[in-house]
Amino acid sequence: MASAKPKGGLSAWFGKGPKGDWVDIGAPKKKGKYQACGRKSAKGKSKRKYPKCVPRSKANSMTAAQRKSAVKRKRAAGNPGGKPRNVKTIVRKRKPTTKRRTRAKKKR
């Protein structure tokens, strides 16, 4: 009996389909397209810089400034200990909070 290829898991996440189709926004191609996510081994074999991968739908909805910022933050975070570092794709600016004065409690 032939075993069927399992559905779900990483193949569903990174493959083509509703959840998949991840692209590297740090490696744009012409006409608004992107290279596939990932690269060869970082130890001298790959000429590409550290990838910032997002789903294609997310990449298409981001502005050029958002893509540039995300790639810059990802590459600045580095790869400490050989482990990839997660970096937020879109950073929202925080509103400045006003400090509220609290009344000192009276001692009785």
Report what the structure shows:
- With 108 residues, the protein is an alpha+beta fold.
- It is 24% helix and 12% strand.
- The protein contains 3 helices and 3 strands; from the N terminus they run αβββαα.
- Strands 2-1-3 form a 3-stranded antiparallel beta sheet.
- The longest helix is centred in the middle third of the chain and has 14 residues, at 64-77.
- The N and C termini lie far apart (84 Å).
Neighbour order of strands in the largest sheet: 2-1-3
The proportion of residues in beta strands is 5-15%
- List segments where confidence is low: pLDDT < 50 over at least 5 consecutive residues: none
Number of helices: 3
Q: How do the SSEs run, as a string of H and E? A: HEEEHH
**How helix-rich are the residues, as a percent range?**
10-25%
Give the end-to-end Cα distance, rounded to a whole number of Å: 84 Å
- Note the main sheet: 3 strands, antiparallel
Number of strands: 3
List the helices and strands and how they pair.
Blueprint: H1 9-14, E1 22-28, E2 34-36, E3 53-55, H2 56-61, H3 64-77
Antiparallel strand pairs: 1-2, 1-3
